[in-house]
Predict the 3D structure of the following.
Amino acid sequence: MKEKVLKFGADDVPGVKTPTGTTVKMLIHPESTGKPVTIPLSILLVILPPGTETDEHVHEDSDEYEYFATGKGMLYRNGKEVGIVGPNTIVYNPKGALHKVKNVGSEEIYLLRVHIPPLPHAGLIGKAIDLAKDFFKKQ
């Protein structure tokens, strides 16, 4: 039997609003899409309106690759400014690195975060996985 192509708009996936005013959408996760994953990973879309920032956080078990599709942000690592990031910038945050991003521009930041291995099902990420799971069941 031919496998159905997984095709969707990122804007259509429901998201979780964070306490800092950002929105987190789980686009790809082994628990949500129901599709086999060759390389276990998760892909999040984080939307940061102007003036908002992500929580300062650490991924103990995952490496993180960030792709900034739009906007202008200040990258922080271990509580210190690292520099400005903008469209078509890729940032690597290794396991255990304390990091955050603040939107310092006038437009929304669309930030894709790839985590290898996938993020665990907990907290806001768990809620985003559950919302995505419901969305993908209807696809």
